[in-house]
């Protein structure tokens, strides 16, 4: 009987530790990953709209020396999945208003992940949405891919930042419910 509950207890303990004593460090690492990805999208937009590079050459910072990265649906899907997992795993550490904003970010990322899953499935099967020549997401039928993914990353990132700011500046009731040390002590 004890062996049956041990894996569940270990998992619960790991997630509890992630959302309590390691929450601040985990959020910091997660934020570095998110900002690095954001930098790729912003640099691609600068390459396109400021420097006037043609779309095939505007591949972001890492895509210039490694062009296959931009064309890899696995890489894009993997990042969308990593974002989703991070939002889910770190969610329990948030309370009150910050949890609400984190949930908004999570909800948007669920859709963003779905769109990347759709793109990946098209790339794997060779059967593209509405017979398009390349894998195409649903909203991409209306908005070009570069602009769409810049937008998606913005609307996931903004509520995430609001959540982190509110988490670091909790109200009294939110502070009382917190299990992590993310908020500075009262002055």
UniProtKB/TrEMBL annotation:
Keywords: Membrane, Transmembrane, Transmembrane helix. It comes from the Bacteria. The chain crosses the membrane at residues 21-39, 74-90, 150-166. This is Transmembrane protein. It comes from Streptosporangium roseum (strain ATCC 12428 / DSM 43021 / JCM 3005 / KCTC 9067 / NCIMB 10171 / NRRL 2505 / NI 9100).
């Amino acid at each position: 009987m004890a062996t049956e509950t041990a894996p569940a207890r270990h998992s619960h303990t790991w997630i509890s530790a992630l959302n309590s004593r390691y929450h601040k460090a985990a959020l910091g690492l997660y934020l570095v990953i998110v900002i690095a990805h954001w930098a790729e999208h912003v640099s691609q937009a600068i390459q396109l709209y400021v420097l006037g590079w043609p779309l095939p050459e505007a591949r972001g910072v890492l895509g210039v020396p490694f062009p296959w990265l931009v064309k890899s649906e696995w890489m894009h899907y993997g990042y969308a999945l990593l974002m989703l997992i991070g939002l889910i795993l770190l969610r329990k550490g948030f309370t009150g208003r910050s949890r609400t904003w984190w949930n908004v970010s999570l909800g948007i990322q669920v859709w963003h992940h779905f769109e990347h899953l759709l793109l990946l499935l098209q790339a794997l099967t060779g059967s593209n949405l509405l017979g398009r020549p390349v894998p195409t997401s649903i909203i991409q039928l209306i908005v070009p891919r570069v602009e769409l993914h810049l937008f998606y990353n913005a609307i996931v990132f903004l509520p995430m930042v609001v959540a982190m700011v509110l988490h670091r500046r909790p109200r009294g009731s939110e502070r009382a419910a917190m299990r992590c040390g993310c908020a500075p002590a009262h002055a």
